[in-house]
Specification:
Belongs to the ATPase B chain family. Its main location: membrane. One of its GO terms (cellular component) is plasma membrane. It is a single-pass membrane protein. There is one protein chain. This protein is mainly α. It has one domain. About 90% of the residues lie in helices and about 0% in strands. The chain has two helices and no strands. α1 packs across α2.
């Protein structure tokens, strides 16, 4: 066999194999590679989008947490103010009630002092009459000397 004919036959077979590969084998392979590359690109884009959404969601959560903290602190401050106002009102009412009780006790004490003075005047008047009876050695009539006894009571 001739080496040139073999080379030419090999070139022809190689050309046919190349044409067959380029026509029927290569397009599905490139199509599969392109599809795979597109899927990878879509996956990376989706991952970037999800990462951005996650960052946005985290930022919104932080804002909501800050807002709820502010609201909670406002509510606590308001509750403390209300509690202090209630305590102050209770102290004021207790003070007023205490003043009323002290005033009532003073009034009652004054009344008892007046009653005690009246009772003491009566006793002093009775003792004065008895003393006068003993000094005069005769009976002093209270109804006859009522005017005198009343003056004596008022002087005491």
């Amino acid at each position: 066999m001739n080496i040139n004919a073999t080379l030419v036959a090999q070139f022809v077979v190689f050309g046919i194999l190349m044409w067959f590969t380029l026509k029927y084998v290569w397009p599905p392979i490139t199509k599969a590679l392109d599809e795979r590359a597109q899927k990878i690109a879509d996956g990376l884009a989706a991952a970037d989008k999800a990462k951005a959404e996650l960052a946005n969601a985290n930022q919104q959560v932080q804002q909501q947490l800050a807002a709820s903290r502010d609201e909670t602190s406002k509510l606590l401050a308001d509750a403390e103010r209300r509690a202090q106002a209630i305590i102050d009102e209770a102290k004021k009412k207790a003070s007023e009630e205490g003043e009323k009780i002290v005033a009532a006790a003073r009034a009652e004490a004054d009344q008892q002092v007046v009653q005690a003075r009246e009772a003491l005047r009566e006793q002093v008047a009775t003792l004065a009459v008895k003393g006068a009876e003993q000094i005069l050695q005769r009976e002093v009539n209270a109804s006859v000397h009522a005017d005198l006894l009343n003056r004596l009571k008022t002087e005491l």
